[in-house]
């Protein structure tokens, strides 16, 4: 009976030890279960974050690529506008703005502005400058100050005046309208004291450095500029001369909403054997006058293709 007694004693001791059961400590088992659940939750959270981040990066990349395509469409539309302007300068009857659709699906609006209908920073009279900037700033003191600083900025130095006087005595001297010009581009207006970013953006559409006129041509000026300066011929539509210098503007909009506006200052006419010369590229701002009810009505009409493709003729740029 000794072996049986030893077996009973061993069994009794094992029952008295709670940790000797196969399941172990229930507290430790619960902690392990909570740890596993938290780990799985953390892994799920990290996985979700990775997926969301990948989608965001994908959308951002697609948005940047779309904007680049829209910018390329706007720049291509500038070339269409130049071809159209040259055709008009050669006597072909065409009209602006031109609305058409690019091969990539972007809808573009191409318009043209005659530089003769703008205020020349280099040659405009102080009175015109004062009227313009008082109207833009709605402050007589600020407008007077800006006009004075523009006149001072474009004034030649004494040494240059002496050199020009000596040149004037030369028989073959032919002074040009921009001989004493100090502004090489309208973007230099930001160097003038009193010009804030808001005033700069508002003023740029009305300014030029290419007309050489003391005041803008009312017949070529935009309705907004005629209203600001109280010019004659109220209500008359702008009539670009399509000669000299013009600003061609292309507003491109993709189907999903990306929008890009490009402007080019172009000199037309034979110069150095070239029919045109691009003087300056600029990034344009949205023109509210092109987004009004009339523009909305025009968008309801299906736009023609800017470039037409044919089997026998290949690609053809839409001019008419």
Largest sheet: 6 strands, mixed
Low-confidence stretches: 158-179, 292-297
Output mean pLDDT.
Answer: 78
Question: Class by helix and strand content?
Answer: alpha+beta
Subunit organisation of the chains: single chain
Number of strands: 10
Radius of gyration from the alpha-carbon trace, in angstroms: 36 Å
Helix content: 40-55%
Going by CATH, the architecture of one domain would be: 2-Layer Sandwich
Question: What are the secondary-structure elements, in order, as H or E?
Answer: HHEEEHHHHEHEEEHEEE
Which labels suit this protein?
alpha+beta, 6-stranded mixed sheet, two-stranded parallel sheet, 18% strand
Please characterize this protein's 3D structure.
With 320 residues, the protein is of the alpha+beta class. Among the domains are: 80-116 and 240-320, 2-Layer Sandwich (Pantoate--beta-alanine Ligase, Chain: A,domain 2), CATH 3.30.1300; 119-158 and 179-215. It contains eight helices and ten strands. The strands form three sheets. A six-stranded mixed β-sheet has the order 7-6-5-2-1-8. It starts with a helix and ends with a strand. Mean pLDDT is 78; it is low at 158-179 and 292-297.
Outline of the structure:
It is built from 8 helices and 10 strands.
